[in-house]
Amino acid sequence: MSGTAAQGPRLRPTLDGIPTYKPGKPAGADAYKLSSNENPYEPLPGVLEAAVAAAGSFNRYPDMAVSELTEELAARFGVPAEHIATGTGSVGVAQSLILATAGPGDEVIFAWRSFEAYPIITQVAGATPVPVPLTATEDHDLDAMLAAITERTRLIFVCNPNNPTGNAIHRAELERFLDAVPADVLVVVDEAYIEFIRDAEVPNGIELYRDRPNVCVLRTFSKAYGLAGLRVGFAVAHEPVATALRKTAVPFGVSRLAQDAAVASLRAEDALLVRVEALVEERARVLAALTGQGWTVTDSQANFVWLRLGERTLDFAAACAAAGVIVRPFPGEGVRVTIGEPAGNDIFLATAESFRKAL
Ligand SMILES: Cc1ncc(COP(=O)(O)O)c(C=O)c1O
């Protein structure tokens, strides 16, 4: 037996830099889960029925071209169907984007802290993550991101609004940034939370991509649309980027359940957006209450709020858990709390108030 056989299969060393996924403690049945930015509402009736009907044929592979959903999205955004590429959640599409652009020796730039998958999917591809710290006001430091571009930069993520801070970038600032990025570097504007934006100065990425071949917009059905468990997201990108995405995606990744539920969600959009509006109102209530308690908060344009707690982060998360709400701690940095049902938000607010008084 050779030495290598005794040691087991050789794995790529780049994987050593990736944290092993540790499942969190499952939220107790009576706890409010405010840790994953999910929509707290049950599926709308038409959406549930579409998914249930699709379940009857899960012995068959889904439509690999995701035709109906693609056509529906293309019509909705006024873009060619060839510009739409779907995937297993927008994180699946983000991974395909990296596989399409970057490999060993290449660099991927993103703000930090931002969506925690960015460094992971970059390393999975063997490329090098280049995190650029947020400013003191928790905003993307777009000048520093421009300064971080090198010959090796292949892709830049811009998370608008940013997860977990909620801050959004305004139109003029983002346009200036996009105009300064070299044409051969792909900029991915990740708009996972766009439906929650109420600040009119924040641009819609679809407007920005139209005359910029190196801009791609990333969207998801997981957040406002409430389909997190079905795994469907999409990119709007020019060819050849969209074509490359179809090559690097996992074949048949988007199930028929997901495809049909997404189509039904788009058709039920009016009812859906009423629910989103209710969450936006809850967000305003929560932010006002936190400010009233003396916390400094960001102007979150997403379905979550951010408290920078530094060393007190884990204590705060533990206090929330003890009170019956599960929040998302980033140890040493802060806590992200999803806007959920009013009763859950109230428990969070009461915990925040007593925690603040005890400081
Ligand atoms: C900024 C951002 N992008 C993408 C995603 C991925 O969502 P999904 O893969 O469910 O579409 C998330 C989820 O938390 C996110 O916060």
Automatic annotation (TrEMBL):
Chain segments annotated as coiled-coil in the UniProt record: none
Gene3D superfamilies registered for this protein in UniProt: Aspartate Aminotransferase, domain 1, Type I PLP-dependent aspartate aminotransferase-like (Major domain)
Protein name, UniProt field: Aromatic amino acid aminotransferase
GO MF term list: aromatic-amino-acid transaminase activity; histidinol-phosphate transaminase activity; pyridoxal phosphate binding
A Pfam family per the record: Aminotran_1_2
PROSITE patterns registered for this protein in UniProt: AA_TRANSFER_CLASS_2
Subunit text: Homodimer.
Keyword Repeat appears in the UniProt entry: no
Record PANTHER family: HISTIDINOL-PHOSPHATE AMINOTRANSFERASE, HISTIDINOL-PHOSPHATE AMINOTRANSFERASE 2
EC number(s) given by UniProt: 2.6.1.57
CDD domains recorded: AAT_like (cd00609)
Protein family: Belongs to the class-II pyridoxal-phosphate-dependent aminotransferase family.
Residue ranges, annotated region (Disordered): 1-22
Species this chain originates from: Kitasatospora indigofera
